[in-house]
Amino acid sequence: MKERPLPSGAEAQAMIAEARKALWVMVGFLAVIWIVQIVNWATDYALSFDFGIRARELSSLPEALTAPFLHFSWGHIESNSGPLFIFGFLAAYRGVRKFFGVTALIVIGSGLGVWLVSPANGVTAGASGVVLGYFGYIIVRGLFDRRPIDIVIGLVMALCFAYQFTALLPAEEGISWQGHLFGFGAGVIGGWVFRERRRKQVEPAPADPTVMLDPPKQP
């Protein structure tokens, strides 16, 4: 197994440019969910109940796309915002276009998991499934891409935020461990699906042998 060298020169500059884009993408994402939260709070969280996921109701399947933008309290959105920004930025700094693909996979995977497995007669909303999805993605991305810097980032994040693994298990009532587990799984799958493909190096065909002729001898 070959590891890719650390970026330098033009590659490093391109990575810095993508990191700037990633920063503003996450700032925009957080701004949107906080603006939605203000409107949601002002309407006594009607948006969360109207556009959250209701398990196994066919009419609620589209809510898998809206639920990550909604929360049920200020404490709920505050607990998600920090990890969402950190994990989201680290997931996006390699490429914003790829990040959008990873995000779509995580949102759909987490939402479907909630819709299929969550208890009936409940409504699920919140960005925590996306948070755990980004967490899973950045842990495995370096292994799939074989980039030393991303392997280190994944290891550091796994150690520093090890408590996040407890969110994958059934816990107290009212916590959607289903969304966490399926989101995390979708993030790991995203690391494989969106891995960097290596172009096969075509070895040049061997050149025809050169025929050496002896020079004519002088009489």
UniProtKB/TrEMBL annotation:
Keywords: Hydrolase, Membrane, Protease, Transmembrane, Transmembrane helix
Protein's UniProt keywords contain Transferase: no
Gene Ontology biological process terms, A to Z: proteolysis
Subcellular locations according to the entry: Membrane
One of the record's GO molecular function terms: peptidase activity
Domain Peptidase S54 rhomboid per the UniProt entry, residue ranges: 63-196
InterPro entries in the cross-refs: Peptidase_S54_rhomboid_dom, Rhomboid-like_sf, Rhomboid_protease_S54
Membrane topology: Multi-pass membrane protein
Transmembrane segments: 21-42, 69-92, 99-117, 123-144, 151-169, 175-194
Pfam families: Rhomboid (PF01694)
The protein's name in its UniProt record: Rhomboid family intramembrane serine protease
Organism: Amycolatopsis deserti
